Amino acid sequence: MSKLLAVGTVAFDAIETPFGKTDKILGGSGTFVGLAASQFGVKTGIVSVVGGDFPKAYLEMMNAKGINTDGVEIVKDGKTFFWSGRYHNDMNSRDTLITELNVLEHFKPVVPKNFKDAEVVMLGNLHPLTQASVLDQMEVKPKLVVLDTMNFWMDIALNDLHQVMKRIDVITINDEEARQLSGEYSLVNAAKKIHDMGPKYVVIKKGEHGALLFNEENMFYAPALPLAEVFDPTGAGDTFAGGFCGFLAKTEDVSFENMKNAIIYGSNLASFCVEKFGTQRMEELTREEVTERLHAFKQLTQFDIEIE
Ligand code: AMP
Q1: Is any atom of ligand 1 closer than 6 Å to the C-beta of 278?
Q2: Which of 23, 119, 201, 267: disulfide with 170, CB 3.0–4.6 Å?
Q3: Ligand 1 atom with the shortest distance to the CA of 81
Q4: CA quadruple 223, 229, 230, 236: dihedral sign
Q5: Which of 101, 150, 232, 277 has most ligand 1 atoms within 8 Å of CB, for mutation?
Q6: Which residue, judged by its Cα, is nearest atom 20 of ligand 1?
Q7: Burial 51-67, CB ≥16 within 10 A → b, else e
Q8: Per CATH, the architecture of 3-301 is what?
Q9: Residues 6+ apart with CB under 8 A from 73
Q10: What is the crossing angle of helices 287-301 and 256-273, to 10°?
Q11: 83 CB near ligand 1 (under 6 Å)
Q12: Cα distances (Å, whole numbers) of residue 150 to 29, 96, 124, 266
């Protein structure tokens, strides 16, 4: 079993969907990655920053799930990163209403000593320079570096993003962002161009339409589990990435074949995340529920066809 180090935001989110609206609740890319990875029982550490306004109870909840938060700096007189978004009726697209970087603006990540040899590193959605700084601090070269990003960072730090992309193995990115980054509409062509920017593996997330994995000439597609109710898609992408990394850290096998399973595990966990607002569903999720749904997933995609 490998160690997993994840850097990302630990945040307050305020979310509006056609089903309702929340005040400031727990969110952040690092939080969702950590909660997903905790399902695999791998030793997971989060590197992030919060302000003095961040409830201790949230960190305690993560610790109780085995997530190490020694790398979460608390800036006593600072304010926690705040993001607010509104989902459209299709629940697949959203508008960012507010991004207040707050303590993130001057954040210098510090990787705890006992995670400087983590075999799997997840560079969650953050400024590319912050992501690079985490890699700089690793004392042992990780077996696998996965990076997630979003349009916000492409808009304000594209050159830095290109630099850090040269140092990673896998990028996870959503379809619109893949198009923005590559300038290509076709996702097959977009993946090729992104591949040329550095990462050997390109994972394109398509929300309710599943995810694609590209590696040179190889391609794999996993659907998302069709759900009767999608309540709040926030964090689904990070949950997917956390599940993907958690599974690879647990199995210690970073081959294309095993990444296919990692995609299924990631998609499976993401299907829970969207069932309630914020982190709520991931906090209460049990192993039994995960296993049961994996069976449903298998059922959904299995067919036996005779090709003459
Ligand atoms: P996802 O729905 O997986 O794309 O992730 C949503 C999470 O990302 C929310 O919980 C936000 O707190 C966090 N987030 C939103 N904008 C940013 C940003 N610019 N950088 C890092 N994290 C962000």
Answers
A1: no
A2: 201
A3: 12
A4: negative
A5: 150
A6: 126
A7: bebbeeebbebbeebeb
A8: 3-Layer(aba) Sandwich (3.40)
A9: 48, 49, 50, 107, 110
A10: 120
A11: yes
A12: 11, 12, 10, 18
Shortest-distance Cα residue to atom 14 of ligand 1: 28
pLDDT tens for the chain, 308 residues: list them. 889 999 999 999 999 999 889 999 999 999 999 999 999 999 999 999 999 999 999 999 999 999 999 999 999 999 999 999 999 988 878 899 999 999 999 999 999 999 999 999 999 999 999 999 999 999 999 999 999 999 999 999 999 999 999 999 999 999 999 999 999 999 999 999 999 999 999 999 998 899 999 998 899 999 998 888 888 999 999 999 999 999 999 999 999 999 999 999 999 999 999 999 999 999 999 999 999 999 998 998 888 889 88
Measured in Å, residue 217 CA sits from the centre of ligand 1 at 31
How far apart (Å, rounded) are the C-alpha atoms in residues 238 and 95?
Answer: 17
For residue 125, is it left (φ>0), alpha (ψ between -120 and 50) or beta? beta
Give phi and psi for 262, each to the nearest 5.
-60, -35
Structure tokens at 184: 């290509």
Which secondary structure element, helix H or strand E, spans residue 241, and what is its range?
Answer: helix 236-251
Verify whether ligand 1 is closer than 6 Å to residue 237 (CB atom).
Answer: yes
Residues 6+ away with beta carbon under 8 Å from 55:
none
pLDDT at residue number 308: 83
